[in-house]
Amino acid sequence: MTEAQRLIAAGLTCIAVFMLDCGVAWAEPVVPSSREEIARSFSPIVKRAAPAVVNVYVRRKVKQRVSPIFNDPFFRQFMGRGFGIPRERVQNSLGSGVIVSPDGVVVTNNHVIKGRGEAEIKVVLSDKREFSAKLVLEDERTDLAILRIEEADGKFPFLRFDDSDALEVGDLVLAIGNPFGVGQTVTSGIVSALARTRIGISDYQFFIQTDAAINPGNSGGALVDLKGNLVGINTAIYSRSGGSIGIGFAIPSNMVRLVVNSASQGGQVKRPWLGATLQPITPDIADSLGLDRPVGALVKNVAKTGPAAQGGLKAGDVVISVGDKEIADPRAFRYRFTTRAIGGAVKVAALREGKRFEIDIALVAAPEDPPRDARKLSGRHPFSGAQVANLSPALAEELSLGEDAYGVVVLDVARDRPGFGYGSVRPGDIIVAVNEVKVKNTSQLEQMVTDRRRYWLVTLKRGPRLLNLRIGG
Question: Does 339 share its domain with 416?
Fold first, then answer.
């Protein structure tokens, strides 16, 4: 052995002795001591949970869109009488679902069943039994839909909800669904992250991230814990190829439970109304407010008669927690606040001029005042074929338009509407003024558009922008 080799060996020995003196011990591989330890698996959990996870098949007839030019008699004369007539085609979609009660209530993703045209929905259980199902509730804002199995006998296998707030990063979970239509599949992984809010999937963004393999067809399937209970509904993946790369997202079971309960209580989701608009805290805002880090939600404005104002919240306050849960941004607040049941109050902590205080905010639904009074407008004007409604706190909340929204909102626009101003308004637009006259309600707007004009001056609020349009009549 050379002198250099002896020095290296001595150095390594010193390092090893030092680590042992510091209490650092190398982990020794543990050999299973019994057949039972070798045979450990997730199979007991799967046997309990898998029968409650179903395949959801949706079959609908849709009409193919045809350009209006093909309705011209000139084209039909040469191309035949059937030319240009919309034809029906069958559209099929496949997803997964979870039975959450013995009487056949099924949760799935809204994007699994969403689509124009009447749909035939089939639910197929893991034991190959097949049932028809009807749609009970669609909630686009959470991307959840509730189905009910027809001819249910009250004896279906089902999963119980567990508290998704009790999950911790690193917890083992199983994902069960029907990826790519190959049949029911179980994958395992861990909770990779919690409270993911920048995913862009739905209005209520507060997702569980997991590395359990989730693929197309898994949408609406179950994410279960090691007790075999439901902790999430698998909804989306992040992928550049279309397949799983270990980044999947699930809607927390606490949000799912809220939508299921709403379906059982009349089919309309009612969420608590804050009566205030919140905005994220940037590093610059945090610095100006004297905060040591950019977390929480800044109160931008407060409705005069809303729960926030009645509780004592003011513009400029920084909300930092709801109940016993700290919040990082407005999306986190929205989740923590809206997943609470209507009734009673919740304690909210905030900062005002650097001082912490707590208030109780009532958990009440947003009022529909004024009544929406929806109307479909017709005639030769920019709003022909549009369905409009009066904005109320309830409708503004439903459409995610903010607390400062007022006036008349466009709910829908007919695709085949006549009129020169085609394409001028879109669903979600707020009609602020027509010909420099402020629009207060739908009845006033309907009266205003009875005039015949060469052009119209229209002021619209589209998202954060205010548009002033001159449209031919």
Answer: no
